[in-house]
Amino acid sequence: MAESSTSARERIVAGAADMISRRGLNATSIRETAKHARAPLGSTYHYFPEGKQQLVTEAVRYTGEWTARSLRKELQAGPEAGLQAFLALWRKIVVDSDFRAGCPVLAVSIEEPAAGQTSAVLAAAADVFSTWEGLLADSLREHGTEPERAAHLATLIVAAVEGTVAMCRAKRSTEPLDRTAGQLRALILAAIGD
């Protein structure tokens, strides 16, 4: 019983993250998320008694951890490998969705939330971005980059990739991602080679 409950709950959270990545924060409703996740509407309210804000917050955290797991694994081979994995992950999402999906963390960060629904969702998004930056900065430092430069470069990488994903969706092309990838790779190689 607990196993099926966990998988139903995770399916709802993953479904919410997917819907937010495609439609944005305000166009994602509890009802549509339940339908998308093939879950009864009542179970959605059971798992998320605080409503949409709780669900969206968990969807942001889910995306953050899912991405961080990939980053942690790839960063074991160094910051360049981590960058390539980060870029490949977002490339796959935009290409596989025919440029209809982006990053749900970015979506909740830039869209005006409903009144009274800002703190938990934005705090979760800020935590996710900080985690990604921290992982990249740690790897850069471990490979010889001065701490302040590592932190600045990590912020630039996350910001550039997030913005590039939005550009890819708008242009319906991976060209912005390709251009950004080359420049970020050069910056990483310069930082770890200095």
From TrEMBL:
Record carries keyword DNA-binding: yes
UniProt DNA-binding region: 29-48
Keywords on record: DNA-binding, Transcription, Transcription regulation
InterPro entries on file: Homeodomain-like_sf, HTH_TetR, Tet_transcr_reg_TetR-rel_C_sf, YxaF_TetR_C
Domain HTH tetR-type: 6-66
Keyword Cell cycle (UniProt): no
Domain of life: Bacteria
TM annotation in the entry: none
PANTHER family listed in its UniProt record: HTH-TYPE TRANSCRIPTIONAL REGULATOR LMRA, TRANSCRIPTIONAL REGULATORY PROTEIN
Name of the featured protein: TetR/AcrR family transcriptional regulator
Organism per entry: Streptomyces iakyrus
